[in-house]
Amino acid sequence: MSTKFRTHGKGVVVWILLAVMVLGLGGFGISSFSGGSQKIGSVGDTDITVNDYARALQRQMNAVQQQLGRPLTVTEAKSYGIDQQVQAQLFAQAALSEEARRLGLSIGDAEVARQITGASAFHGPNGQFDRETYRMALRQQGYTEGDFERQVRDDIARNLLQGAIASGVSAPKTLVDAYADYITESRPVSWAEVTEMDLTEEPAAPDEAALQSYYDAHQDRYTSPESREITYVWLTPDMLKDEATPDDTTLRAMYDQRSDEYRQPERRLVDKLVFPSEEEAQKAADRLNAGQISFEDLARERGLDITDIDLGEVTRGDLGNAADAVFALTEPGVVGPVATDLGPALFKMNGILPADDTTFEQAKPDLEAEATIDQARAMITAMTADLEDRLASGATLEDMAKDTKMELGHISMTPETKDGIAAYEDFRTAANSVTQQDFPELRTFDDGGVFALQLDGITPAAPIPFAEVRDRVIEDWRNDELARLKAERAEEVVAAVDAGAVLADQGLLVTNSAPVERTGFIEGAPTALIGKIFETEPGKAAMVTDQDRVFVLVPGASIAADPAAPETAQLRDALAQRLGQSMSNDLATLFATAAEAKLGLNVNTAAINAVQAQMQ
Hints:
Layout: H1 13-16, H2 18-21, E1 39-43, E2 46-49, H3 50-68, H4 74-79, H5 82-103, H6 109-117, H7 131-141, H8 145-166, H9 173-184, E3 186-194, H10 208-217, E4 223-224, E5 227-235, H11 248-257, H12 259-262, E6 263-264, E7 267-274, H13 278-289, H14 295-301, H15 306-309, E8 310-314, H16 316-319, H17 323-328, E9 333-338, E10 345-353, E11 356-357, H18 360-392, H19 397-403, E12 407-413, H20 425-433, E13 443-444, E14 450-459, E15 462-463, H21 466-498, E16 510-517, H22 527-535, E17 542-546, E18 549-555, H23 566-599, E19 601-603, H24 605-614
Antiparallel strand pairs: 1-2, 1-19, 3-16, 3-18, 4-15, 5-12, 5-14, 6-11, 7-8, 7-10, 9-10, 13-14, 17-18
């Protein structure tokens, strides 16, 4: 399925909320791109400005950063293909906007005003549209009011065209049925693991010649990797914690500064799902109450992921009109519809977090541990200038360990080394790039510590002498021989069953499992066994290997799911929704691609590169 129109159906709010997205841009300055006068390309007479591209690229990078849990560079984004995805989306949108303009689709001022004034992003403290809030938000994004309102107008028109193209598309019943039958098909299975006890012969003891031959043939298993010999000195806050002694005044001040953390009101874990109208929200609530659908599937029907509706931990003050209804629940459940700023919504309460009032004495041990490390970190900061001066004056690492609080050490670094100082990514990066011509310089750790290092030499990769790994060679040889014998035994059993024998009569410990679906799980069996069940003709046998384990299985006849069962009907409805949405998106993508070809697509590679360079 195309990714050009993943946001199809979410409405014009996507554009309106751009005004507050600057809060998530990590300090990226939109105004640095010449006020939008330069463009990265166009479709027909519709331009895509560098600001449009910068915002879209940064927004997508932010989404990926949240998944990775760390910052994402432009270079990494390009390696993931994010830049190409963003460009494809922007050019597809421009093609639809241009086609909408050519068809004369236009939106009145009243609708534009309704969309903008209704957006909570532009509301003041009183909950109403605030002109100054609106202007400030637009300035932060590098928009003039006229530019933004034209953008909103174009977005609505484009959504109307896109809706006209893709609306009414439904997946054919035969396709939905085929998918549903495939997913819900189940088969019973008899299976057994071939163990060492099931073998008819023991692995023969290898002689020295056989071991030597095995060693020579598997040299990659018995080779020490290249190592970088590193001498280093380091000093971390943890090394100085015995010298740091925060007093009660400091700890009390920390406690008072965190009063909100230590005195928390009752909170709830809540999901929120907003609907366009009261009628749609009530229909959804009725389906939930009737057990016809889950809250999560309701969200998926609206094109949302679980993360899109998760409010996290909320207090009464966070929920507005919904506070009383949500906090009246004494166990997980759903309430609503409730009127909110964004429209009628259903709220799902997933858990209760009781009020927490932690006293100073209760919090003191944690505060003391944190303050001790903070004080030790400050001590290192105070030493930094002196440590840098010593290294710059030619002090050796041995001198540093003798004359300062830094500790001396040596490590043989390989790609697998992650112990001790090598647990720090900063150290691993420096150790892998340092040369023997580099003089030691003071570097920092993320925890406030410091270190310096030098490369003493590089020990090349080399075979480990046979005598040193002889025991490992014997063990590896025996494991490989066992695997071979197990496979041979399994093949004998498979041949016997296919010739008419019964698996239970083959001397193996057989388990008869209840019918399992393709996405199912059998305790004690590898995942590969599940797939093999449906690849094997019922009544026939098959072998499955999983590392050094070997299995034999015999599946039974396929069992179709009961089409009248509620869960089957629910699955078919969900499949129909998703397949229909996929076909709608593909249709919109095809239309946009055809429009690009017809109207003419121009790409300004230099401008794209310039934006990416400024975002480095």
